[in-house]
Amino acid sequence: MKKVVKFGGSSLASAEQFEKVGKIIKADPDRVYVVPSAPGKRFDDDTKVTDMLLHAYESANNGVDIADEMKAIKVRYDEIITGLGLDFSLDEDFKEIEATLRENPQSDFAASRGEFLNGKIMACYLGATFIDAAEVIYFNEEGNLNDYKTYRKLRERLAECETAVIPGFYGMGKDGNVKTFSRGGSDVTGSIVARASKADVYENWTDVSGFLVTDPRIVDNPEPIKYITYRELRELSYMGASVLHEDAIFPVRHCGIPINIRNTNAPEDPGTWIVESTCQKQDHVITGIAGKKDFCTIFITKAMMNAEIGFGRKVLQAFEENNISFEHMPSGIDTMTIVVHADEFIDKEQSVVSSIHRLAEPDSVEIEAGLALIAVVGRGMKSASGTAGKLFTALAKEGINIKMIDQGSSELNIIIGVQNKDFDTAIRAIYKTFIK
Ligand code: ASP
Fold it and tell me: Cβ–Cβ contacts within 10 Å for residue 17, how many?
């Protein structure tokens, strides 16, 4: 059995947290490859080291002296090193980083040093080999992962090490400069390392005991999800639920490696299993509820729309020409509605409306803002009847008007549109009906 373990920033923010992580790793000899984030927040108002580094980059780029900023960052690492009682120093690394930032400030390089330095401490603490991610993770010209080169190199390097630490979040760009994934990208590195090493499990350690059924800012103390499929997770993440970086699913999904989300501060909790498929009995018909506010609807009418071949294509072309992706497209006989993100649409609204008129010659186009979308997701819906009925009854009881309904034939989710102002109440009502 082989496990890849990734630890998030809050799990590595202080020497105390490092000690918890050390215990977790040592408790299971299968935990052979470790992917650390940069030190995160130690308390609510604290600053993540990645943000401190990005700030130092801004200063350097604007010709402001960075000596004090770099000192403050070094203090964060030195506190960890001293707290762990390690005979280890990052002095030389800090000299090099500061010199590079002064001579040639680059934001990705700056941001990546948080993981790089934490990885070095971790390798020393565990007595494991340090593998610089810039030597094993490669991006292509478009800025995406260069799969072929990455997996070949990474496999070779990992095969040489019994245990290793590979810092998260960055790799080498096509231009020979360090390049990062988007924020939170250490999750992606963990997933890539899991795939490269053909791990049995990818454990992702964070500060919550798994993926929650819904947003704890809306529902008090929501239940954690025990098992969720990659597809369900993708639906929920897309609609705003976050624990894991969206792109972290793809590498492991490709080869069926399960992800286990765990809590560094409560290691005995089983957390959430993210799997390809499962027969585990579900406690509830639905797996999760997520949503986002601030969508716009574009409502188009045209008599005999149903008989006009190519009408839909022309309407969608208007969005394509304006470089706007659409979210949903419910339609009637002579009507069609396009749902889009407000922030992508607002500045281009008149241009879109005139494009629709020019391309599709409709009778009318009406636009409206303030729509919230809620996704009710669950593999269990496929074999259960009455889910939609229960859902609509729950909302009706709260006096919430449903403005849109969309259920794909996969029966994995039902998307409903409500007014922004009803968003929280709707989620609470759905939770109460299906969970408790
Ligand atoms: N340290 C990076 C961030 O703060 C990446 C990560 O933690 O995954 O976004």
Answer: 22
Ligand 1 centroid to 34 CA: how many Å?
Answer: 15
Closest Cα to atom 2, ligand 1: which residue? 184
What is the mean pLDDT of each successive set of 10 residues along the chain, which is 436 residues long? 97 98 98 98 97 98 97 98 98 98 97 98 98 98 96 98 98 98 97 98 95 95 94 88 87 94 97 94 92 97 95 97 95 95 97 98 97 94 89 96 87 94 98 95
Are 370 and 420 within 8 A, CB to CB?
Answer: yes
Tokens read off for 92: 């030389």
CA of 282 to the centre of ligand 1 (A): 33
Closest C-alpha among 78, 342, 36, 50 to residue 167: 36
pTM over 0.85: yes
Amino acid at 221: N
Tokens of 237: 């993440």
Question: What is the C-alpha to C-alpha distance for residues 119 and 34, in angstroms, rounded to an integer?
Answer: 9
The pLDDT value recorded for residue 241 is 83
Nearest residue to 240 via CA among 204, 294, 189, 187: 294
Q: How far, in Å, is the centroid of ligand 1 from the Cα of 364?
A: 47
Longest dimension (CA), the chain: 79
Report the relative pairing of strands 272-275 and 259-263 from DSSP bridges. Answer: antiparallel
Contact criterion met (CB below 8 Å) for 28 and 3: yes
Nearest-CA residue for atom 5 of ligand 1: 184
Distance (Å, rounded) from C-alpha 405 to C-alpha 350? 26
Q: Which of 10, 48, 76 for mutating ligand 1's site (highest number of atoms within 8 Å of CB)?
A: 48
Compute the distance between CA of residue 411 and CA of residue 388 in angstroms, rounded to an integer: 11
In this structure, the residues whose C-beta lies within 6 A of any atom of ligand 1 are 9, 37-38, 48, 50, 114, 168-169, 183-186
CB 40 within 8 A of CB 18: no
Atom of ligand 1 nearest to the CA of 169: 5
Q: How far is the CA of 419 from the centre of ligand 1 (A)?
A: 34
Residue of minimum CA distance from atom 8 in ligand 1: 184
